[in-house]
Write a structure and sequence with these properties.
This is Glycosyltransferase. Pfam families: Glyco_tran_28_C (PF04101). InterPro entries: Glyco_trans_28_C. This protein is an alpha/beta fold. It folds into two domains: 218 residues, 3-Layer(aba) Sandwich (Rossmann fold), CATH 3.40.50.2000; 135 residues, Rossmann fold (3-Layer(aba) Sandwich). The strands form four sheets. A seven-stranded parallel sheet has the order 3-2-1-4-5-7-9, with helices on both faces. The longest helix is centred in the N-terminal third of the chain and has 17 residues. The two termini are 33 Å apart.
Length: 375
């Protein structure tokens, strides 16, 4: 049995967990304050929230040693007790933390090997260093060639760090465009799809109207956020010519799976998470144009520039194998305990290491699309 902690802010952690769990032969129990995701195959332990008011904001980080441990918070106490009780009953062979330093430490204090996900950004604070030190393996959902995504790892943590490539809920699409490029399809206007996440800081309706006035030759569609959330954006992604998106990992993974050129606008997040991602995309050969803000963007120029990019260049970011690589690495740790990191690295070859190989056959991920079909 493997335990999988899923952070409850946004939807990206749950999407990633569902994709990876579907690739594991071992049973996987989800541990989260989120409802059980559609397509989740194993048990799901619903956790109490640990961020409901009242919260003593002066005590949340234990003087910088941890990230979220507010004193005298009933939700935190019940949450950690429920995880500890499950560990005691289930006797897991590994726990995946995506992401919580505190949950990683709790599992390690029970003698359970931990696989932690590392997010982009500068992660050299004391809490991250402690969590990484307690982890048998550190996974990241970007390709090994994306230098600069993660800063602050010491040598020991770096030796246990394995980038596996982007992880999307969607199979990667074949070819550059599902439809002809707008320059060869004059009977319709080019389409731009704007993606909002659920983490806050998205594009407002007013901002979208201003963009329409700046670039009137484009058909604009806004999805995401609480008001216009779309459970399955895949048809929209495949029909559009350019995607405008924040730099969250899940959004970039889905855009890259669709092989669509993108305008990427990083949002403010702790540890400069999205700014690191945007900077790496801008410096690389991926089909992404970076803008500082939605409201100040020169949309006519940006959309034209993005539309001239080759969407198939996303293959080196997302080849459709990220979930299976992560699952292989987690399975190796589960099979061998804390000493399995070398085996995990061998089991999950980094993206791009064998670019000439034929992709594995497509396999279904729960009730959703295939995760293994590479273009």
């Amino acid at each position: 049995m493997i335990g999988y902690y899923v952070h409850h802010v946004g939807q990206g952690h749950a999407v990633r967990a569902t994709a990876i769990a579907a690739q594991l032969d071992e049973p996987v129990t989800g541990l989260s304050s989120l409802p059980r995701p559609a397509g989740w195959r194993g048990p799901w332990v619903q956790l109490p929230l640990d961020d409901t008011e009242p919260v003593d904001r002066a005590t949340t980080d234990a003087d910088g040693r941890l990230h979220w441990v507010p004193l005298r918070h009933e939700g935190l106490r019940r949450r950690m007790a429920r995880i500890a009780s499950w560990i005691n009953r289930a006797g897991p062979t590994a726990v995946v933390s995506d992401v919580s330093i505190e949950v990683a430490l709790l599992a390690r204090l029970h003698g359970v090997p931990v696989v932690s996900f590392a997010l982009p950004g500068r992660r050299d604070d004391e809490a991250h260093r402690l969590g990484f030190a307690a982890s048998s393996l550190i996974l990241s959902a970007w390709p090994a060639g994306a230098a600069g995504m993660l800063e602050g790892l010491d040598d020991a943590a770096r030796s246990r760090h394995l980038p596996v490539g982007a992880i999307s809920r969607f199979a990667t699409a074949a070819g550059r465009h599902a439809q002809p490029h707008p320059t060869t399809a004059p009977k319709r206007r080019p389409r731009v799809l704007v993606l909002n996440g659920r983490g806050g800081g998205g594009v407002s309706d007013e901002s979208l109207e201003r963009a329409r006035r700046v670039a009137p030759g484009w058909d604009w569609t806004l999805v995401g956020g609480d008001a216009s959330w779309v459970d399955d954006p895949w048809p929209l992604l495949r029909r559009t010519d350019v995607v405008v998106t924040h730099a969250g990992q899940g959004a970039i993974a889905d855009v890259s799976a669709a092989r669509r050129p993108a305008v990427v606008i990083p949002q403010r997040r702790p540890h400069d998470e999205q700014r690191h991602t945007a900077a790496v995309l801008e410096a690389g050969a991926w089909p992404a144009v970076v803008a500082e803000s939605f409201d100040s963007a020169d949309w006519g120029e940006l959309l034209t520039q993005a539309c001239e990019s080759d969407g198939s260049a996303w293959r080196s970011w997302n080849d459709g194998r990220g979930a299976s690589r992560a699952a292989a690495a987690i399975a190796a740790v589960s099979a061998g305990g804390a000493g399995a990191t070398s085996g995990a690295g061998a089991a999950a070859e980094p993206l791009g290491a064998r670019a000439s190989d034929t992709p594995p056959p497509a396999t279904a991920a729960g009730d959703g699309p295939s995760l293994e079909l590479a273009s």
